[in-house]
Amino acid sequence: MLLRQLEYLVALARERHFGRAAAACHVSQPSLSAAIGKLERELDVPLVRRGRRFAGLTPEGERVLLWAHRILADTDALRQDLSRMREGLAGTLRLGAIPTALTAASLLTTPFCERYPHVRVRLTSLSSRQIARRLADFEIDMAMTYLDDDEDLGEMRAVALYEERYLLLTPADGELAGRSTVRWAEVAALPLCLLAPEMRNRRILDAHFARAGAVAVAAIETDTVSALFAHVATHRWSSVIAHAWLHMFGVPEGMRVVRLEQVARQPRVGLVTAGAGPEPVIARALLEVAREVDLREVLDRLTVGYLA
């Protein structure tokens, strides 16, 4: 059994099409099919349901796929470990991030790349559910996501980076702009632009509004932070933003940030890696950088500056 055969099986499961899987692996379709057929003979089990087109994996194929992800991830970790011993850390860090934490990712990736110039970073915006699945399947090395909310990350290693704090972003001439602190129920009455309900940040905000006895009905809902800021910058709407967003977008001209009343429990954002198998050397290196940067202090200092 060769690693190449496992790579072909992983590509086929991902692409669900022999031609696309072959193109992704930079081989001909007959070569990919032959390699998977040889793997089936070596393991003495059928792996692929075959018809006129790809029809999915057999139960045995699904089990082999789980092992393939693990074996390939361990192989990458071994190569990274040996590379670091030989010439310093090299390779590609596959980093996922929820959209609300993506705005602060550069605070980690920039010093990381400066310290390890031979490492490339592949940063992908993913939902919290996608992160849990991709970590379990060893498709990413590490992720920035919520640590202690309503969705289970499974058996993951986690290191907290910062607590998400919430601010009202509102027009400078708005009715609440001159206040030092505003209540959640007051914000619910404003014309709002918020993230979409399927996003974890919005579900957290809705829970805070509910605890204040209010319901926020947004005139504009979007699944990207950049689109939210683009709408709020027109001065037509207000929004509840996470303080980490200020690092990327700041406060648009003619707008003001106001502190929201403190909630009982502030969601933690952190770095997570898969709990099974050895921790990738490249992920461990990013953790070292994160401990030195101290995102909590950096973001809190930034927030105080804008509130002032």
What this model shows, in words?
With 308 residues, this protein is α/β, with parallel strands linked by helices. It folds into three domains: 3-63, Winged helix-like DNA-binding domain superfamily/Winged helix DNA-binding domain (Arc Repressor Mutant, subunit A, Orthogonal Bundle), CATH 1.10.10; 88-163 and 267-296, Periplasmic binding protein-like II (D-Maltodextrin-Binding Protein, domain 2), CATH 3.40.190.10; 166-260, D-Maltodextrin-Binding Protein, domain 2 (3-Layer(aba) Sandwich), CATH 3.40.190. The protein has 13 helices and 13 strands. It has helices at residues 3-15, 18-24, 29-43, 59-87, 99-102, 106-115, 128-136, 184-188, 200-211, 225-232, 245-249, 281-293, 295-307, and strands spanning 48-50, 54-57, 91-97, 119-125, 142-146, 156-163, 166-171, 181-182, 192-195, 218-222, 239-242, 255-260, 268-274. The chain has a five-stranded mixed beta sheet, with helices on both faces. The protein has a four-stranded mixed beta sheet with strand order 8-12-7-11. A hairpin with a 3-residue loop joins β1 (48-50) and β2. The longest helix is centred in the first third of the chain and has 29 residues, at 59-87. The chain is elongated.
Shape: elongated
- Count of helical regions: 13
Number of strands: 13
- Computed Rg: 23 Å
The CATH homologous superfamily of the largest domain is termed Periplasmic binding protein-like II
Give helix % range.
Answer: 40-55%
How many separate structural domains?
3
The description of the largest β-sheet is: 5 strands, mixed
In whole angstroms, the N-to-C terminal distance is 63 Å
**How much of the sequence is in beta strands?**
15-25%
Which class do the helix and strand fractions yield?
alpha/beta
Level-1 CATH class name of the largest domain = Alpha Beta
**Low-pLDDT residue spans:** none
Mean pLDDT: 89
CATH T-level fold name of the largest domain: D-Maltodextrin-Binding Protein, domain 2
Which strand order spans the largest sheet, edge to edge or round the barrel?
Answer: 4-3-5-13-6
What order do the SSEs take from the amino end to the carboxyl end, as H and E?
Answer: HHHEEHEHHEHEEEEHEHEHEHEEHH
